[in-house]
Specification:
This protein has one domain. Helices cover 75% and strands 0% of the residues. The longest helix has 27 residues.
Length: 163
């Protein structure tokens, strides 16, 4: 195996990795958010991130739900890019969970007037808790996936044994 081929396989491109990670985080956890809304665990509409740009009445339609799902994917890609570029070397599940809590705080506490058009604690408690848990799991997914990719020494040890 040539030296240049070995170096390529050892280092993951953070940009492409973050884009792919964000897409799948949004796809999986945006789908979970929509399912929570459909099953009445939360009253927060799937398109809440698009609330500043579209009318609320549109966001309650099926097309609005799809737009909300897509906006959550875009939000996840942006959040994943930030996480991978800044925190990718942190180990374990806790940094990702804290990141998810910070994102929930940013959207639901700091951005509540913008995204929810009301304080979050006027929502039913099951909505607040459900949204918090989804963001916690979403952050765990992003953080732990990045941690495994950038701090897992087992795959690097196997490559050096083969060389």
């Amino acid at each position: 195996m040539s030296k240049s081929h070995k170096q390529k396989s050892e280092h993951t491109n953070p940009w492409s990795f973050a884009l792919e990670l964000g897409f799948f985080a949004g796809l999986i956890w945006g789908g979970a958010r929509w399912l929570m809304y459909a099953m009445h665990f939360t009253k927060v509409i799937p398109g809440f991130l698009a609330e500043p740009f579209f009318k609320h009445d549109f966001l309650t339609t099926p097309a609005g739900h799809l737009l909300g799902y897509l906006s959550f994917i875009v939000f996840s890609v942006i959040a994943s890019l930030l996480y991978v570029l800044i925190f990718r070397k942190l180990k374990g599940p806790w940094p990702g969970m804290i990141y998810g809590m910070l994102c929930w705080s940013g959207v639901f506490l700091a951005g509540s007037r913008l995204f929810l058009q009301q304080p979050p604690f006027r929502l039913p408690w099951n909505s607040v808790i459900s949204e918090f848990c989804i963001f916690l799991l979403w952050g765990l997914f992003i953080g732990y996936t990045a941690a495994i990719e950038y701090t897992d020494e087992r795959k690097r040890e196997q490559q050096t044994k083969l060389a």
